[in-house]
Amino acid sequence: MTTLSADEHDRLQSALQSISTVAGLDFTGAELIRYTMNAVYYLPAAKVVLRIAPATKSAAVSRVARVATRLADLDQPTARLAIGMDKSIETPGWAATAWTYLEQTPGHRHRQRDLAKPLLAMHGLHDLGISLPDWDPVGRSRGRVEEAAVGSDLDFLSDWSCRELRIPLTDLLDQLLRRCSELETAVASAEWALPIAVIHGDAHAGNLLTSPDRGVVLCDLDSVTLGPPEWDLVPSAHGVERFGDPRDHYGAFAAEYGFDLLHSPNWPLLRDIRELQLVTSVIAGLRGRPEVAVELGHRLRSFIARDDQTWHRYR
């Protein structure tokens, strides 16, 4: 788990307490198990997992609750909301969802090929019967860059940009916005090999859990929408090229799924979109997360240079 400053730790503890109090959950012994865009806590006394986001994301959090409920109704291999908690939990500053805790075998890591079966099930759906946002893989990155340009941490980000990248923050943000425009134009004219379907939107092995009665299931349903299934194959392919994941693991996944994205003419475009996402996902929320700030600096130097340096996953 990534290191937090004392101020950030206290801020998240306040969020945990307020959300738990509103939901009537015992947060004694709560453990922060992941923190990228959302703060994810395991509450052992309640046997639930809380995914907490700022109140500015309340509409998205509410949509995730509806999506999770609908996928459960369709018996899809996805994580389930906690019993009796099928709506988002909201306070003046925060919004959250509560999920059934699935105990995992200590030290076990899912393989890329474990993604194939749940993805094939989801890609077999061509409608959820509820409103879903348009697939817009670049729009979220654009929004995060724009948020960074007007946020409350401009002084911090300016110092970080000059230290890590040796360029002014305004130059960095301008470069990222230009790249957004280039990729939006390319996406608009792309022709996909696979038919449009329900997609997970962030399908990597870290978003898999094992359920005792349903096998391997997908979690982190924030990005579920209708779009090209190729997009759900990107993280596995990109892991080989950018994070140094074993190529044979990807090969086993591609064989089981039945499509090798690395040999698709759309791979260069999809790779570039993925990289843009990975260098913008946390740019507006770096304060108090020193290890993440250093790694993002490394990623951005590589992204700007368009080199093939290995990146490292956030902890």
Automatic annotation (TrEMBL):
<feature type="domain" description="Aminoglycoside phosphotransferase">
    <location>
        <begin position="40"/>
        <end position="251"/>
    </location>
</feature>
<dbReference type="InterPro" id="IPR011009">
    <property type="entry name" value="Kinase-like_dom_sf"/>
</dbReference>
<protein>
    <submittedName>
        <fullName>Aminoglycoside phosphotransferase (APT) family kinase protein</fullName>
    </submittedName>
</protein>
<keyword id="KW-0808">Transferase</keyword>
<dbReference type="InterPro" id="IPR002575">
    <property type="entry name" value="Aminoglycoside_PTrfase"/>
</dbReference>
<dbReference type="GO" id="GO:0016301">
    <property type="term" value="F:kinase activity"/>
</dbReference>
<dbReference type="Pfam" id="PF01636">
    <property type="entry name" value="APH"/>
</dbReference>
<keyword id="KW-0418">Kinase</keyword>
